[in-house]
């Protein structure tokens, strides 16, 4: 095999100009593809991080029916504590999850005593929210308090609203919200900071403490069932009375409805202790749970694991209580991300076409120009398989040479680009820094694909050369 490769290399050097031009074409094509993958992939990753790490999280969990009415942020679709215990446990036990943050979301009227507008509010635990979406604190503009993200009695106001209503840090504002029962409640807040707006629906999202959100909506604390508390060691197991007692209590009749085993508020102290010990906050309603993964590449696996963990929790109609969604469900940029992936695929197809046509053209010309040579080596007893291997080796060497040089050039160009600061604007976000990077897997896959296509392109000319009749080939002029 080494001898065949040496002969193939010698044959390529016989036509240096043609060989160099073909290899250069492969080199430039491969370098361009790898640079595009690096730049486009880095742009995609950075923009995805801008949304997932500053607002959405990697995964979100909602109660069934909430997402369909999400534009109005319905408070009657919140998740109750009795639904949340098993969900919280599964999130704590999932090693793929780095952090998670419960939220109470609501629509409210925002007033500075001179004008009024609507605002979307996120009631959050500051520490949990900062751990789940770490870039959110970087959105606080100069002059505002970023840590903790929000204090009780204060609000982080989105830049769009602050600029329109001339709101400044330290101003007093009023929030008015409609509760689940239709009543209206208002509360005053002090502006803690102004949030830099991001593209998409999150541009009008403000932040308040989750306890303030529950006070504004008049959402009370709720106890969970005695059996759930008993399973976790926070209460005694319930003792059920027989369906038909042999002896009725005095003053009772057979038509008297049975007394419920658990009063809704009877085990509230135990429920508070459970939530406090687990670090879950207050036992009250939440609208959604944002989840941050240790590695976003494991998103599909983590999504399936969370769904499996809560699949047994069903409503009266036998449907699952929770819906688990990836970040793509809530961010319009996900469509652009999908287009970037599609463009990368098309660029690779173009590279394959370039390599295929150029290598096939070179070897077809080589076969045509070396017909008498092929006839000669056939006449002296060279096997057709050896002739086939000779031309395939030429295609392999062309692909290998172009791939190696193209990979080196692209990696050097990416390293140089990382030393230079490239900034651009996206939506309302300015001075975003682009840092081109490429995964080793992309380099290896693209390189091997190029070599494979070069080998495949050489098969047809090689097959033709190996099947030539020696007598006819020697007569060729």
Strand order in space, largest sheet: 2-3-7-4-6-5
- H/E order of the elements? HHEHEEHEHEEEHHHEHEHHHEEHH
Task: State the share of residues found in helices, binned by percent.
Answer: 40-55%
Rg, please? 34 Å
**Shape category:** elongated
Secondary-structure-derived class: alpha+beta
For the secondary structure, the number of strands is 11
First-to-last CA distance: 31 Å
**Unreliable spans:** 245-254, 256-263
Query: What's the number of structural domains?
Result: 2
Query: What's the pLDDT, averaged over the residues?
Result: 84
Beta-strand percent range: 15-25%
Can you put this structure into words, describing what you see?
The chain has 477 residues and is of the alpha+beta class. Helices cover 49% and strands 17% of the residues. It has a 6-stranded mixed barrel, surrounded by 4 helices. The protein has a two-stranded antiparallel sheet with strand order 10-11. β2 (97-111) and β3 form a beta hairpin.
How would you summarize what this structure contains?
This protein is an alpha+beta fold. The chain has 14 helices and eleven strands. It folds into two domains: 192 residues, no CATH class; 193 residues, no CATH class.
């Amino acid at each position: 095999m080494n001898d065949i490769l040496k002969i193939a290399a010698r044959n390529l050097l016989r036509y240096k100009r043609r060989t160099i031009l073909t290899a250069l074409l492969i080199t430039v094509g491969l370098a361009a593809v790898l640079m595009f993958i690096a730049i486009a992939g880095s742009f995609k990753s950075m923009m995805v991080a801008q949304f997932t790490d500053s607002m959405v999280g990697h995964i979100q969990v909602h109660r069934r029916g909430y997402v369909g009415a999400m534009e109005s942020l319905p408070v009657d679709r919140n998740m109750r504590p009795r639904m949340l215990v098993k969900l919280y446990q599964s999130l704590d036990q999932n090693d793929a999850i780095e952090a998670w943050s419960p939220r109470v979301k609501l629509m409210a009227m925002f007033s500075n005593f001179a004008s009024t507008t609507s605002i979307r509010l996120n009631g959050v635990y500051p520490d949990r929210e900062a751990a789940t979406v770490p870039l959110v604190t970087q959105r606080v503009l100069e002059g505002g308090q970023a840590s903790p993200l929000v204090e009780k009695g204060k609000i982080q106001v989105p830049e769009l609203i602050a600029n329109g209503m001339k709101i400044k840090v330290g101003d007093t504002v009023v929030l008015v919200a409609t509760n689940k029962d239709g009543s209206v409640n208002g509360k005053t807040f002090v502006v803690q900071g102004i949030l830099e707006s991001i593209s998409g629906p999150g541009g009008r999202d403000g932040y308040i403490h989750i306890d303030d959100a529950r006070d504004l909506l008049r959402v009370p604390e709720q106890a969970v069932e005695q059996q759930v508390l008993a399973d976790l060691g926070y209460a005694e197991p319930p003792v059920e009375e027989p369906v038909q007692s042999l002896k009725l209590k005095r003053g009772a009749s057979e038509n008297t409805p049975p007394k419920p085993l658990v009063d809704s508020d009877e085990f509230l102290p135990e429920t508070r202790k459970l939530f406090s010990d687990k670090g879950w906050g207050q036992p009250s309603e939440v609208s959604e749970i944002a989840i941050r993964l240790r590695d976003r590449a494991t998103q599909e696996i983590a999504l399936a694991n969370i769904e499996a963990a809560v699949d047994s929790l069903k409503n009266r109609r036998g449907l699952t209580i929770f819906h688990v969604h990836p970040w793509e469900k809530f961010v319009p940029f996900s469509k652009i991300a999908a287009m970037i992936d599609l463009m990368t695929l098309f660029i690779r197809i173009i590279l394959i076409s370039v390599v295929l046509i150029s290598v096939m053209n070179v070897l077809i010309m080589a076969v045509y120009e070396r017909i008498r040579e092929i006839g000669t080596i056939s006449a002296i007893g060279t096997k057709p398989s050896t002739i086939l291997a000779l031309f395939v080796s030429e295609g392999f060497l062309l692909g290998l040479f172009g791939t190696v040089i193209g990979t080196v050039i692209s990696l050097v160009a990416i390293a140089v680009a990382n030393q230079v600061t490239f900034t651009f604007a996206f939506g309302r976000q300015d001075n975003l820094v682009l840092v081109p990077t490429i995964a080793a897997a992309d380099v290896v896959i693209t390189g091997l694909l190029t070599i494979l296509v070069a080998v495949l392109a050489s098969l047809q000319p090689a097959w033709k050369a190996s099947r030539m009749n020696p007598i006819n080939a020697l007569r060729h002029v």
